[in-house]
Amino acid sequence: MSEWNTRTKLVHGGTRRSQYNEVSEAIFLTQGFVYENAEQAEARFIETGPDEFIYARYGNPTVNMFERRIALLEGAEDAFATASGMAAVNGALTSLLKAGDHVVSAKALFGSCLYILENVLTRFGVEVTFVDGTDLDAWRAAMRPDTKAVFFESMSNPTLEVIDIAGVAEIAHEVGATVIVDNVFSTPVFSNAIAQGADVVVYSATKHIDGQGRVLGGVVLGTKEFIRGTFEPYMKHTGGALSPFNAWVLLKGLETIELRVKAQAESAQALAEALEGHSALERTLYPGLASHPQKDLVARQLGGKGGTVLSLDIKGGKDAAFRFLNAMQIAVISNNLGDAKSIATHPATTTHQRLSDEQKDELGITPGLIRFSVGLEDTGDLLADITAALEASQAV
Q1: Whole-prediction pTM
Q2: Could you tell me which of 331, 310, 342 has the C-alpha nearest to residue 388?
Q3: Across residues 351-378, what is the average pLDDT?
Q4: pLDDT of 279-327, one tens digit each?
Q5: Which of 253, 278, 306 is the last residue of a domain?
Q6: Is 1 inside any structural domain?
Q7: Same domain? 286 vs 339
Q8: 311: which of 81, 146, 239, 285 fits an S-S bond (Cβ 3.0–4.6 Å)?
Q9: Residue 282 and residue 208 share a domain
Q10: How many structural domains comprise the chain?
């Protein structure tokens, strides 16, 4: 399977059929498994193989199919699926760290990720240093002999800064630190973070992997040693397991993720190019634009693809941004992304509302900033909808 091309892997990778030889993957809605005898039960608790299950919190055949397929796509040795993207982020960090450890993190992060680093880890004695993720010198200066891990979003939410995975990994590995990358905005379609130096890759499967707003899910990928030796023991005892039904939905999502994401990115590129310089906008942020300050890194790390999200900084601040949101006819107002439906979000009052005004200013999350996740609608219809909403945003 590892020699197949991506689209073939996404349709067939990891499939395991029951005795009925079903075409579509089976959903094993069971919390436990029966043993033929007491000796088998004893043996299974000592050591389990890929076809041996104990309890749904530890593993499940449907969940395992999802893990095997996404690992095949990512080029990872192994994967462990979780109940949500934040369960994956929290588990990847908490399973690895202990009191006295040092972490270096990019400061431009999703609000919940910041909460884990600022409030949860520090509460248990982990020291965290935040840096400008785009500045390799800042990463280098922050490293210490006791730095245990680095963490960053390969493309930041919502200002779409792109972090040099290979550059940061080289710096981190010099001190023996584990490189943990949240790769959601880059997507597994455009970015192979492990090949670029990441040790651990995290996805919120709720986003592009599902792609249709149906279920929560997450996944952590890495070496078999990390996944089974560090991550799995933590997760199976703390209970962040993925539901078998959700795993089945995510398997179906993987079958079409490449087709969806490529179409969404193509539309996002066209929208960004058409909207750049609009009189109602302070800034148009999209990594695929020639004006993006990291266009060379985007070309090297993402094949020049800017992803499925653009951010629009609307003149007039919060009031204008709200007029824009309320005037849209096609895009919906919500806080997910990577969906078949276009979704617009006002980060300053929703996903990043817990940040102080100083933090928002430092990260470039202005009162007028809109994060726009491009769906699968007709690009021309979306452009007309956005353009009309921009005109409405400036009407006072």
Answers
A1: 0.95
A2: 331
A3: 94
A4: 999 999 999 999 999 999 999 999 999 999 999 999 999 999 999 999 9
A5: 253
A6: no
A7: yes
A8: 285
A9: no
A10: 2
